[in-house]
Amino acid sequence: MTMNGMGSAEIGEQLGYAVHKSQCQRIIQIQNELTVAGKLSKNEGGSFVIPSQNIDQHKWTKMTKEVAEMNVPQFKKFAEYAKVNGRTQQSISTELSALVVVCNTTGIHPSEIINAKTITGEENYIVKLTEVMMDFKEKLQTGNAELNKHSNHNNHEAKQVRRYSQAMRHMCHAYGRQFPRFPPQHILSGTKGDTFGAYNDIALTDKLAEGAVAFIEKNGKDILGEKHWDYGFVIATALMPEMITRTESILQWKVEFQTEHDEYEHNPVEYDFVTGFYEPKTKDYWNKFIVSPLARKMLKTISEYRMGKTIMPFNKSTASIERRWSQLMKEYYISLGILPETVRLSKKTRPDDCIFQQKTKQFFYDERGIYVLRHTGAHQWCRWTNYDYGFVADLGWKDMNTLKEVYAGQTIKQRLKQDTCFYCQPPMNPDAMESKVFCKAQHAFIYYSNGGKSKVSQN
Ligand SMILES: [Zn+2]
Predict the structure, then answer these.
(1) Which domain holds residue 9?
(2) Higher per-residue pLDDT: 194 or 59
(3) What per-residue confidence (pLDDT) applies to 204?
(4) CATH assignment at residue 423
(5) Does residue 329 sit within a domain?
(6) 129 to each of 158, 167, 296, how far by Cα in Å?
(7) How many structural domains is the chain composed of?
(8) What is the pLDDT of residue 57?
(9) How far apart are CA 381 and CA 116, in angstroms?
(10) Of 167, 238, 269, 395, which is most buried, counting CB atoms within 10 Å of its CB?
(11) How far is the CA of 417 from the centre of ligand 1 (A)?
(12) Are residues 187 and 212 in the same domain?
């Protein structure tokens, strides 16, 4: 026992190695260090105690992330819950930091939010969390937030309230507390709410989507270098919009399809069909049509040398392939003038005018350059089906609303064009149009099967 009441065995346990009694002086010194680190505190009598009693009383005391992670039950429960739900260690750690920042700044213990009740005893966590986050926002904006010492105070991300709100909401989820979808301006709206629908008009036109395939075919090897180049990048860029896939799913897909023949309105049609296309993010299986000549040509090419295998050989992780693919897309967007050349620089060394704000087109092209292709596919199929959201959703969305709100909103101008159909009601100057539109899916299939002829010119 030291004079301050803590046994050498207990101290050894805290430190993770045996401590001998004769090292009393050293022990006191260590106890003082632990106190500074927040792992021990002194009670009124001057004895060292483990501060968990404080935490059990649901009163928040300022602490470091390391201490909070080990001692705050709500944080531990959040971390376990997030892990079970497949979150990465990195993203869990980022959110834990945000949780500690909020609690340290507002002095609120998580249990005060999770167990908040109205006077009549009803659950009140939404109101409580809203109040806490309003208080937090004010302190954050006036420079009075207790940011983690590692986070850069000028960092744009560290100043975004929504990421803190999101972390707090996720912690509440671990206790079964659910939240409605908030409008973007609400303080509890998270990343999704905040940008929900903000990018639903972003898509490449048919000509620009074909241009991306041609650009990568022509310049890809020079951009990446022989060692990192694979022709699969060309194939994947052509197939991702046509099949409306996510990035990882097209890269994990094993090439397999059947060529189908059918007849619509007394016209022969031919297309390629993929059944059971697996979407790892949502764990769903979908059917996909490959109809346009370019996509069908690419599918035929890849099937000649990688049938039953992934489009690109996987020596490394999907992430490294994605990184290179992103680079190719970025170079394409630079060549179009959508992005400035300075996006080639790392975020840290970019000039201010090259750090894009969320909800801007450039932000999306910069951050989600490949994903633009999924949006492109959603728009393409909507144009092909006269915005038949039910049909398009069956190719890759569980609900029509997400497709409509997030991926492919129809503008009022597009609605005026709904009678135009490259097959049955072609525009006067089809070549001048950036994208093709059809009055129904079958007319797109007929048009592409007959080599791109309208009904009038066909007869
Ligand atoms: Zn038509």
Answers:
(1) 1-51
(2) 59
(3) 93
(4) 1.10.443
(5) yes
(6) 19, 11, 52
(7) 3
(8) 58
(9) 47
(10) 238
(11) 12
(12) no
Distance of CA 450 from the midpoint of ligand 1 (Å): 14
Mean pLDDT for 299-305 is: 96
Handedness of CA 50, 55, 60, 63 (dihedral sign): positive
- Confidence at residue 343, expressed as pLDDT on a 0 to 100 scale: 93
Identify the residue with better confidence: 156 or 362.
Answer: 362
Question: Each residue of 257-266: pLDDT tens digit?
Answer: 999 999 999 9
Phi/psi at 178 (5° precision): -105, 160
279, 356: one domain: yes
Q: pLDDT value at position 54? A: 44
24 shares its domain with 90:
no
Q: What is the pLDDT of residue 53?
A: 45
384 and 372 in a common domain: yes
Going by C-beta distance under 8 Å and a sequence separation of 6 or more, which residues neighbour residue 408? Answer: 200, 203, 375, 378, 379, 381, 382, 392
Would you give the distance in Å from CA 231 to the centre of its chain?
A: 27
Which of 194, 225, 250 marks a domain boundary? 194
Residues 330 and 210 in one domain: yes
Which of 83 and 14 is assigned the larger pLDDT? 83
Chain centroid to CA 316: 22
Q: How far is the CA of 441 from the centre of ligand 1 (A)?
A: 8
The predicted structure's pLDDT at residue 316: 62
Q: Tell me, what's the pLDDT at 8? A: 66
Residues 360 and 215 in one domain: yes
How remote is the CA of residue 387 from the centroid of ligand 1, in Å?
13
- Interval between CA 419 and ligand 1 midpoint (Å): 8
Whether residue 340 lies inside any domain: the answer is yes
Same domain, 271 and 304: yes
Q: Are residues 287 and 229 located together in one domain of the fold?
A: yes
Work out the number of other CB atoms within 10 angstroms of the CB of residue 13: 12
CA of 454 to the centre of ligand 1 (A): 9
**Residue ranges near ligand 1 (ion) with Cβ within 5 Å:** 421, 423-424, 439, 443
Domain termination site, one of 194, 226, 241: 194
pLDDT at 2 over 50: no
- For 242-280, what is each residue's pLDDT tens digit? 999 999 999 999 999 999 999 999 999 999 999 999 988
Distance between Cα 425 and ligand 1 center (Å)? 6
What the block records as the tokens of 390 is 């039910």
Q: Is 200 inside a domain boundary?
A: no
Q: 284 in a domain, yes or no?
A: yes
How far is the C-alpha of 270 from the C-alpha of 80, rounded, in Å? 51
Please determine, for residue 188, whether its predicted confidence score (pLDDT) is greater than 80. yes
- Asked if 68 and 103 touch (Cβ cutoff 8 Å), the reply is yes
